[in-house]
Model the fold of this input.
Amino acid sequence: MNSLGFDKPEGATRVVVAMSGGVDSSVVAAMLAEEGYEVVGVTLQLYDHGAATHRAGACCAGQDIHDARRVAERLAIPHYVLDYESRFREAVIDRFADSYLAGETPIPCVECNKSVKFRDLLNTARDLGADALATGHYVVSRPAPGGGRALHRAADSDRDQSYFLYGTTAEQLDLLRFPLGGFDKPTTRALARKYELAVADKHDSQDICFVPNGRYADVIAKLRPDASEPGEIVHVDGRKLGRHDGVLHFTVGQRRGLGVATGEPLFVVRLDPKSRQVIVGPREALATRILRLRDVNWIGDGSLADIGEEGLPIAARVRSTRAPAPALLRIEHGEAVVRLLDDEMGVARGQACVFYDSAEPGARVLGGGVIAATARIESDLPAAA
Done:
């Protein structure tokens, strides 16, 4: 079986490879070309490069486009650079800014995969007559028992990127392929050296691609110059501890840089953009067990409606750096509610909660949603908007 899961190589099959200029997608292109596929490389220009061009590891910046072009020349495959800047701005950057100003902690990589790479780029792949779109993500796609394809965690848990791909639809999965899902990073780099790719030792991308200096507040302030309004820093017990220069400078779970001194460790517990308050408290105030979700995507068997109020035991993942943990997914009054069996600390609105059928490596992704509200106990969960 070859990299795309066919029983035999299909020499006449055209495959578009999303080439970011990094080692992972470059190896995918090389593997498929070696296996006899008609490979077409596509690189997306997603934003105005600016300072990001000079930051090592900035995805889709000028250097990355150059690197993707060099790899395509090495493999003797056609390569196209597509200007997706306007749609990326609308679907990802603007939503990121608005979410941040609403007191959330958004994950733009999820929206980029869902709205740009796996929607718009898939359409482009179809326009090019491709039978599949392959990427360098560390995630596994395989035939599902009831038909279609299912998404699974990668073999290497440390590299698994399924958390960022929960928004992928069943229709998209039919055309998507992830040849690196069974590899670890050293294996990928070894293959890059085997194929004599210039990017074999290139650093992995870090942080959000359109935040070149890692300071999110600077980007928000530039996009929404009137949004940085001062307000109060308030303890969960009601004490007013000080002032701040704008909620956009804070995230839930933050400890450093609060600008107040009380003699006790304090963390940002929640943000209230309407009152412009930053609410802080002790670490135990960050404990969360109940999550209400919005914008849920379901790619498991059946439908969400089948789950009902009785609930479905799942493994839930509330951040990319944590392993899935036991939980119960219920549908209450048409909304998805997840009850974690154990406390999670510092869960923020705007982050993703991803569902798996187990906590084991290789577990199937059942879907996920955006966290709209959190609470430690049922009675504290805010009413649905």
Confidence is low (pLDDT under 50) at residues 49-58. The chain has three domains: 14-136+179-194, 228-281, 286-380.
